[in-house]
């Protein structure tokens, strides 16, 4: 993944980017969405894809739908009005919301779309290799939540055991504009250990919610054959949606 993906967003057709929207309702004036009669969903939901993926946004009742492509609030001044299917070709954190003519707002939704990595066969019979359960995690918190936890599983998939020196939170090797390491913490699985072929390790992560967009990376310092930028790592992203 390139380090500029969150700074510049995914590649979309020019016609999609032409629909800018400035909301008539300021954030502090938004109605309470609890019990609202409208909901909104993406089809398909967040997924890995090969080449490109076409995403449609649908509301449960007739409504205008607004969205952003970088995880920012879909009810802010930079939101775009949804006019039809979107073709995504890059990493995209899609946030979206619906509002009816009567003023009913849906709860905001977030979906993460990631290009699928091409797998290259490793023919080295003495390879030390790891496989991660995910490439990235997006923590979506609600106001009042003290913390959100997630588990990342790493498995030894080579023919030699792997020495894990440490597991830490640090800078994202792929880049990013929202680095805040203090909001992410490794609760379990960070110590030194050896993984024999087939053995796995569960790493427990904690995210302390913040209204600012935050990012970091879960870094694995090992003697395994590195696969990307000299490291095994998981991208971490998080924010509070103030609803």
Task: Walk me through the topology.
Elements: H1 5-8, H2 14-17, E1 40-43, E2 48-49, E3 53-59, E4 64-68, E5 80-81, E6 86-88, E7 92-99, E8 109-115, E9 130-132, E10 136-141, E11 148-156, E12 162-170, E13 184-188, E14 193-195, E15 200-207, E16 214-222, E17 232-240
Parallel strand pairs: 2-8, 10-17
Antiparallel strand pairs: 1-3, 3-6, 4-5, 4-7, 7-8, 9-11, 11-15, 12-14, 12-16, 13-15, 16-17
Fold and architecture overview:
The protein is mainly beta and 243 residues long. It has 2 domains: 5-115, Sandwich (Immunoglobulin-like), CATH 2.60.40; 130-240, Immunoglobulins (Immunoglobulin-like). Helices cover 3% and strands 41% of the residues. The chain has helices at residues 5-8, 14-17; strands at 40-43, 48-49, 53-59, 64-68, 80-81, 86-88, 92-99, 109-115, 130-132, 136-141, 148-156, 162-170, 184-188, 193-195, 200-207, 214-222, 232-240. The strands form 4 sheets. It has a 5-stranded mixed beta sheet with strand order 2-8-7-4-5, with no helix packed on it. A 5-stranded mixed beta sheet has the order 10-17-16-12-14, with no helix packed on it. Residues 1-35 have low confidence and may be disordered.
Which descriptors apply to this entry?
five-stranded mixed sheet; about 240 residues; 2 helices; mainly beta; Immunoglobulin-like; single chain; disordered N terminus; 2 domains
- Please report the total strand number as a whole number: 17
Assign the CATH architecture of the largest domain. Sandwich
Q: Give the helix/strand class.
A: mainly beta
CATH class of the largest domain: Mainly Beta
| SSE topology string | HHEEEEEEEEEEEEEEEEE
- What general outline do the C-alpha atoms trace? elongated
Note the gap between the termini. 31 Å
Proportion of residues in β-strands: 35-45%
- Count up the domains: 2
Radius of gyration: 20 Å
Number of helices: 2
Major sheet: 5 strands, mixed
Strand order of the largest sheet: 2-8-7-4-5
Low-confidence stretches: 1-35
In the CATH scheme, what's the topology name of the largest domain?
Answer: Immunoglobulin-like
Q: Roughly how much helix do the residues carry, as a percent range?
A: under 10%
């Amino acid at each position: 993944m390139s380090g500029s993906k969150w700074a510049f967003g995914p590649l979309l057709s020019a016609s999609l980017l032409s629909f800018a929207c400035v909301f008539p309702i300021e954030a502090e004036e938004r109605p309470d969405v609890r019990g609202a009669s409208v909901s909104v969903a993406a089809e398909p939901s967040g997924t890995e894809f090969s080449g490109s993926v076409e995403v449609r946004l649908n509301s449960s009742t007739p409504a205008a739908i607004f969205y952003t492509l970088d995880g920012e609030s879909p009810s802010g001044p930079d939101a775009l009005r949804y006019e039809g299917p979107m073709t995504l070709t890059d990493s995209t954190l899609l946030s979206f919301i619906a509002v009816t003519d009567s003023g009913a707002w849906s709860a905001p939704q977030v979906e993460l779309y990631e290009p699928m990595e091409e797998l290259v066969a490793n023919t080295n019979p003495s390879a030390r290799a790891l496989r991660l359960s995910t490439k990235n995690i997006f923590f979506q918190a609600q106001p009042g939540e003290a913390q959100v936890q997630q588990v990342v599983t790493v498995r030894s998939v080579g023919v030699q055991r792997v020495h894990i020196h440490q597991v830490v939170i640090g800078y994202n090797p792929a880049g990013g504009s929202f680095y805040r390491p203090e909001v992410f913490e490794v609760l379990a699985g960070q110590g030194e250990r050896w993984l024999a072929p087939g053995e796995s390790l569960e790493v427990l992560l904690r995210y302390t919610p913040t209204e600012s967009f935050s990012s970091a990376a879960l870094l694995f310092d090992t003697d395994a054959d590195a696969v990307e930028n000299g490291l095994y790592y998981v991208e971490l992203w998080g924010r509070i949606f103030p609803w």
